[in-house]
Amino acid sequence: MSTDARSSKTDSATETGTTRRQLLALAAVGGAGAVAVAGGATATAADRRTDPNRSARTDVARITVLGTTDLHGNVYNWDYFKNAPYSDSAGNNIGIAKAATIIKTVRSVVGAGTCVTLDAGDTIQGTPLAYYFAKIDPITQGATHPMAAAMNKVGYDAAALGNHEYNYGLDTLRAFEKQLNFPLLSANSVDWHTRAPVFEPWVIKTVQITGRKPIRVGILGLVTPGVAIWDKANVEGKVRFPGIVEQARKFVPKLRQAGADVVIVSCHSGADTSSSYGNALPWPENASTLLAEQVQGIDAILVGHAHKEIPQRFVTNTKTGRQVLLSEPLYWGMRVTEMSIDLELRRGAWKVTGSSAMLYNANEVDEDPAVAKAVARSHAKVLTYVNSVVGTSTAAMSAATSRYEDTAAIDFINYVQADAVKAALAGTPQADLPVLSIAAPFNKAAAIPAGEVTVRDVAGLYIYDNTLIGITLTGAQVKDYLEQSATYFKQVSGTGPFTPDQLTNAVTPTAPGGTPDYNYDIMAGLDADLTYAIDVAKAPGSRITDLAYAGEPIDPAAQFVIAINNYRQSGGGNFPHVKTAPVVYNRQIEIRQLLIDWVTANGTIDPASFSSLDWKLVSDGADITITD
């Protein structure tokens, strides 16, 4: 279960023209002001920059851990949905090609042989580039995945699996694994029957610094247990996902017994303990802090999954009192983590004496030419695909305001979903049941233009790889579902005017960082309107008013078929009733492809044929004013 350090060309600081001071100028957020040192002492930023590897002493050393996470199929600083360079209000840049430049620069300054490069998961899903090589020209039939090509050029030493690695099934994941020059790690992805890991749980890299005893760096991979819920169709009966803390307790000692001087965990699980799926599983979704607190023998954790920025955080292990370093770089390659681990040779064994972390900002550098070149042909194929015209629209539709008002863009998703389920139920016992549909405002930037419509226009409406499922609920359960959805809104008084942020993304016990947009569902009818109001002046659980179907108050005992995505039906977002509801439709068809196929087959999108104003926000029954 061990590996030697991979050989790589070391560019000197002179060759790149980069000094340590210039490198520090790239730091996105300072994390070096106070460095954790054994015994509770601290060191200054100046101490941190003093490189022990250049000391005459041979009993001190420093290794550098470089980390990315949640790359989500982003190689270039490119937005496939806008057909333009990526841009956001914060001025971020994205893509592994930019992250590669940072990684190469750090290696050139500190010495490539002293570095360990890791990723914390969610690599092969999230962009049309990733989708194309999973579904259109699949890697299971011989194509090379662009993320494999890019990551191999960077020279990663290991990567943890993320939950989205399972989105396309085990065959695609195994094909991706075979294309990599480094191991995919997951100690808590275990065989359904034997409970043995189905991927390598850990690996040891030997770091050799001139004049010093080799340093053995143990790397453990872990993934959020939520995979069992979100990708149930792909993993049930095949792979189980026990708790992060529980599995780490088994494998960290094994790493130490195998001779690891340092243990780094690449953990696809957020630092703020919480679960979007409530108590559906006995283990939390986000457990990196619990991992640091409860498992002995861990020196640092590269955190992923939460899409948050943590330059440097120290957590005290409750067993040993030692400080464990956590760092999470921002997603899509926007940031790269640098963790510095200082060691001292004591009685012939290396001991960690201190650590620190900082983040580097990708918007300060150019794309690495080698990575960009490695994926150029794949990128060109995908550009041709996403810019191909598949139909026309009689009017423009925007999702920009969908989280707080009814829009034609969400109505279109709901219409296509409901229509697909209704057509499939013909000739079944549920054929005459009314069909409703749910959709969430995933992408505020999504828009369908008037006139010609391309694949990327349609795909932008639905950026996730969810599949469509049909379940049955009663009218009473429909109301319960909508009440859960309405917890997305903050409780306010008065009728405004409010900004959207004053109303949305409420903090709840299961969403301490604020309820994400993707956990707000809008429900609509197919053959008749489902209408309702959400009263944001009222407490959660009693906000849905005037709920009606076909113009009549909804019958609590009436049966409805609900077109729903697999993430939600499996328990994502902790919505009531759906996990145990009877499933009447499940053909494993991706909703995004369903939308593209609908436009291709019908040729014209006419919002007048499916869009109506069916829901609204009110305060104590009165309409409210929202200004964006």
Automatic annotation (TrEMBL):
Molecular function GO labels: 2',3'-cyclic-nucleotide 2'-phosphodiesterase activity; 3'-nucleotidase activity; metal ion binding; nucleotide binding
Keyword terms of this UniProt record: Hydrolase, Metal-binding, Nucleotide-binding, Signal
Superkingdom field: Bacteria
Annotated GO CC locations: outer membrane-bounded periplasmic space
Coiled-coil stretches: none
Ranges where the Calcineurin-like phosphoesterase domain occurs: 64-308
Transmembrane segments: none
EC number: 3.1.3.6, 3.1.4.16
Signal peptide interval: none
Domain 5'-Nucleotidase C-terminal: from-to ranges: 389-579
GO terms (BP aspect): nucleotide catabolic process
Family in the record: Belongs to the 5'-nucleotidase family.
Descriptive protein name: 2',3'-cyclic-nucleotide 2'-phosphodiesterase/3'-nucleotidase
Source organism of this protein record: Terracoccus luteus
